[in-house]
Amino acid sequence: MTDAAAYYDLVRTDVVRHVPPTARRLLDIGCGAGLTARYAKDTLGLEEVVGIEFVPEIAEQAAARLDRVFCGDVETMALDFPAGYFDCILCADVLEHLRDPWALLRRLRPLLSSTGVLVASIPNLRHARVLAKILLDRFEYEPSGILDRTHLRFFTQHTIEQLFRSSGYTADFVSANRSRSWKFFLLNLTTLGLARPFSIVQYLVVARPVW
Question: In this structure, what CATH number is given to the domain that contains residue 119?
Fold first, then answer.
């Protein structure tokens, strides 16, 4: 499997875990090859899963798995869905790639049903490895991860909360993906948990519109 294939073919079970069990329609923004949204449909019994993907050849793969797929730049394309159409919108490692994630969140808000949620995973710039690179004057972009060279925005827990609050949502930090190396395990143990925020690679957030 190539690096590109691995990037687009991930099944984000950690994200799907937070899709409401009563959801009927789901929109996956940055759906990749469609495996995550397809997994959500198969496991949760969703009636319809819709994807938006920027890369044309990857969107074609997703189209074979999802009910509808739209190819293009989600920040500029028309989002011609009825108000309240979706019970859940996924933004799995998407918002940090956007020029104006605040504007997109405001555009998505009317598309959620009265009980709908937006589920997002967002990298944590406050991770110990990134902080160490900054201290050593080695803030250098990488092929993937927190310092992915395609990231345009960077967030910490505080600024994630600000992002959603200023865009008309309340945000619940429901989970986090952490570094699993023995170094971080030892660090967490010796500091009685005080270093836990610095081991977080991604925050998982469930955001609800404020009506």
Answer: 3.40.50.150
